[in-house]
Predict the structure.
Amino acid sequence: MFQELNRGSLSPWCVCPPFSLPPPPLPPSSPPPSLLLLPPPSSLLPPPSSPSSPSSLPPPLLQPSSSLPPPSPPPSSLLPLPSSLPPPSSPSPSPLLPPPSLLPSSLLLLPLRSNSPLCVWTSRGCTDVLCCILFILFLFGYFAVGLLAWSQGDPRKVIYPTDSRGQFCGQAGTPMEKKPLLFYFNILKCICVETCPKEHLTLLTAKLSLDRKKQDYYRSYCKEGTNFTKMVSAPDILSQGLCPAMLIPSQAFTHRCLPALGTLKGVVVVGNETSLADNAGDQVNATQLLDAAKKSNLVVEARQVAMRIFEDYTVSWYWILLGLVIAMVVSFIFIVLLRFLAGVMIWVMIILVILVIGYGIFHCYWEFASLKGVAGADVTIKDLGLQTDFSIYLQIRQTWLAFMIILAIVEVVIILLLIFLRKRILIAIALIKEASRAVGHVMSSLFYPLLTFCLLAMVIAYWAVTAVFLSTSNEQVYKVFNISAGEFTRNSCVPESFSPNNFSAGTLDTECRFAFYGGETLYHKYLIVLQFYNLFLFFWCANFVTALGQVTLAGAFASYYWAFKKPEHIPAYPIFASLGRALRFHTGSLAFGSLILSLVQIVRVLLEYLDHKLKGAQNRCAKFILSCMKCCFWCLEKFIKFINRNAYIMIAIYGKSFCPSAKDAFFLLMRNVIRVAVLDKVTDFLLFLGKLLIVGIVGICSFFFFSGRIKAVEETAPSLNYYWVPILTLVVGSYLIAHGFFSVYAMCVDTLFLCFCEYPRRAQLRQTVPTSDVSVNDLSFCCTLY
């Protein structure tokens, strides 16, 4: 019967446990009462407790029923229980009443006001409706922007390189189909070519050469239709941008021809040559291009590293997937063990974290000592420079010394924190025990992060696709180019119908050339605004999904906390019930809170955008002011996230709108500021140690497996270019998995902590509390210490 009422249109619970009786029907002539006094049946009164039996709550949280003053005669607004109601032992009780065993043992005051925080069966109303409507309108606008971008954008501009005339290199069905590579004359001029140059050759040498093959070879890298015999001199060819000044041995990288720069015995070389001849015949030493060579060589070598990493993923992906499954199983087992052995598991976790880091220190010292006397092991990282083969760094002593120092500092910090917070850790363990019971009763909460992950993935994918289409929706803009002046005019033109007579008074000194990507329509003028709108809605939707997950988990765990008898009085499907309440009644409040956070985030993006644009022109004062503003908004974002998280908990409990919930949460936390600063944060620290333990176990096991240190599985381990690739992937992946499981725990701890802070006021108002439960004892123990 109780579960049937829970599934009704009314709110399953508000803030007090679901044991309150609905008001009985009143005579038509009676005025609407404000309170209803229900004297408990004598058969339901508990036997008097012995003086030696301890109370389930320390004062002042619970006042024994014997200490309550005798009830005064009810005023006219207080009506006795109608005699028409069946007695508790009646075989057919009223369908509106819960089982008699749920009645409290003391007098029960039922406020009938709809805005009372103690009323259970009051229907929840939609909160922050205006913000809900605004959010829906912005979503429709977001979809409209996406459709507009998809109709105007061309992602081929990202896939294929584009030459100076706006043609896509290598695109099927175009004249450039057989020319997939982009070759640069200079930073502003480029054409599509079939292959990259393989030898060094200057324009002057090719023009004066009698070898026809050399001329044809050089002309293949010039603009189509270029004829060396008709051109008077090489400077005329260069001034008109028909050919490059020289060809340099190059190699393809992302479909672009880049100089094949390298080193040979410490000397910079281009191809196999250490010097180059320019058009004047002067020899240019390749070492003069050292800075440019380093940058270009880094790009080329980065491609090689990327290819090797891709190869490592192709041969180790199934081992990585198995490692992530193991991380998920370990996290799940850890959560289950916390359910039954919370105190033991916390201390075991602390000891294991210290031991794991201690082993890391010992291993680093062992590697450091074993490399003593090895040739080349005393080279410093600074002398070694940046190397694409990261295994080289593991062959020098300084690397292991740095690792050892870092782990030693972490170990000392953790031990000092444990020493100074040892009493607080005992208190935090009590809170974690209660969170373990709550998670145990609401096991479906462990899988809710999967829904949040899927929704966030959809939001990110929609934003990324829309951003790509918006950035590629610019059109090719052609301008009239003055050949003699060597610059573009302001006049636009169409290549197919261009006539020089229309612009140069009958001369042939102009031509229609591709100038840039852009557009002169209203859509193209406001592209940057649409990009910011896309980014703003991305923040809003992502924060809304996060808020939905927080209020859903908070509602489920709060229903556990305020349940009189666990697990009988917990809703059958607490996660689904809480999710339904959040979407049905509090979409506007969630949109309001996420809107405030999104506005701060978009301001931070604007500040970064201004910093990037004004970096070259700003003075020290402007740079200081901008840095201060970025720091202030970063702090403001953290503060708003903290307020929003607790406001969502209050929304899940009371069903109020966002602003009253945020205000109540803020003042409630301020009244318990010591508990917030110590107890809650110590609990977060212990949960972080749990994540660190899981990551450490998975990381150490993957290191021994992929590095071939385990002889039993040495032949099973895949052959890799960089064994740190799967190790790093597993470390990051296992942390994300552990964070997903422990984020449920963190939300449970925050919810129970906020309910616990609200508990004394609730007990004083109702003069009754839930039946004796271990949770009450544990949390009351925490209260007595402050």
User: Anything to note?
Assistant: The mean pLDDT is 73. The chain is about 55% helix and 10% strand. The two ends are 41 Å apart (CA to CA).
